[in-house]
Amino acid sequence: SDAIEKALPIEGVNGIVYRNGSDIIRTKPRDILADVNLLPLPARHLLPLQRYRALGMAISMTTSRGCPYQCIFCIGRKMVGAKVRYRDPSVVADEIQFLATLGFSQINIADDLFTANKKHCHAICDEILKRNIKIKWTSFARVDTVSDDVLSKMKAAGCTAVSFGIESGNKEILKTIKKGITTRQVEDAVNMCVKAGIDPHASFILGLPGETPETLEETLGFAKKMEEIGLSYGFHLLAPFPGTEIRDEREKYDIRILTDDWSQYHANRAIVATSSVNRETLDNIVIDWETKFKADLDKMGARIKTGDASEEETYMIVNLERIIILYDIMMNELIEKHGSWLSLNQQYSEKDLIAMLAERIERATHHPKDKILNSLNYVVEQGTLNCSHRNGQVEWAWAD
Hints:
The structure is a single chain. This protein has 15 helices and 15 strands. The protein has helices spanning 2-5, 49-54, 76-80, 89-99, 118-131, 148-156, 171-176, 183-196, 213-228, 245-248, 279-306, 311-331, 334-338, 350-362, 369-382; strands at 17-20, 23-26, 59-61, 64-65, 85-86, 106-109, 136-141, 159-167, 199-206, 232-237, 256-257, 272-273, 340-342, 385-390, 393-398. The strands form 5 sheets. The chain has a 6-stranded parallel beta sheet. Helix 5 (118-131) links the parallel strand 6 (106-109) and strand 7. The model has no long low-confidence stretch (mean pLDDT 93).
């Protein structure tokens, strides 16, 4: 900011990349910030928080920076450094206390490894309990950094779920990617979460070095075994980002990168192959999993129609349908395009105006009117969508 305000040459600013004509200029790396407590709070007021809240999304924060582990597929270490730097637990609790006032149902603690330092984890939980902060939260962890006492304290402080990166059920692949965990540690971590009353979630990465049809079957079998004791999981496909060891040494790891189109690096479809496993094989596993997931949702939907669904199933389906509709409305700017019209009748009730808006949106989408109406009622009740009626003009707009 000093360079911009004082019109100084930006090539003297470390840690940036910029264009000079057709050239891409990269300046010298910036020193790692040793004391993360010097950082201000994120400028969340610059984001459309009301829309995120309307979608039922969690609000995120961090309590530390850095990751000491050396997984060959991960870009996180390159982005935040290898040395872990911790924020003061009381400052962390201040931020949690503030976020709890914003109307979000959950906070996502997005540290690479919230549980990496037992003392830090305990101290934050103690601050939450001391202040009696009532909000649900989740975190990421490694299976070799959780314990009964840490998970019990996290549960008491409001943690509802922990997400693990398991990556593979094959021990040789785990060694190759330098994950540093064992399948026994995975099983122990899942059991400890269940015992503490915390939902364990996990991600597996398919297409890693050494992947074969046999190792894929081993991973699928291990995932199902863990599901039986309480783990929910999903699959990602290897995305070899620039700067990762797996990309820089692809020949060594027998990885063939199929595209450099960065828009395809979303980890939901294969962009790599090994000498034993092609793109189609990897895609088919994920497609089968997606199909099964959709079929399970369809069964829940059928049970709702017959009145046989549980309260949890009903909430899940209704909430998912609402998120899909509201996301469509937001991304296609349907409120901005169809949320205003001339109406000289000042006597319309809010209910009437919502129904009129639902009719206009129905004509612009494939969603049923009753579900659009339910979604609009939800965001109006939340206060995230507001209506004004002035000078004969109806104006719907998202809240700031």
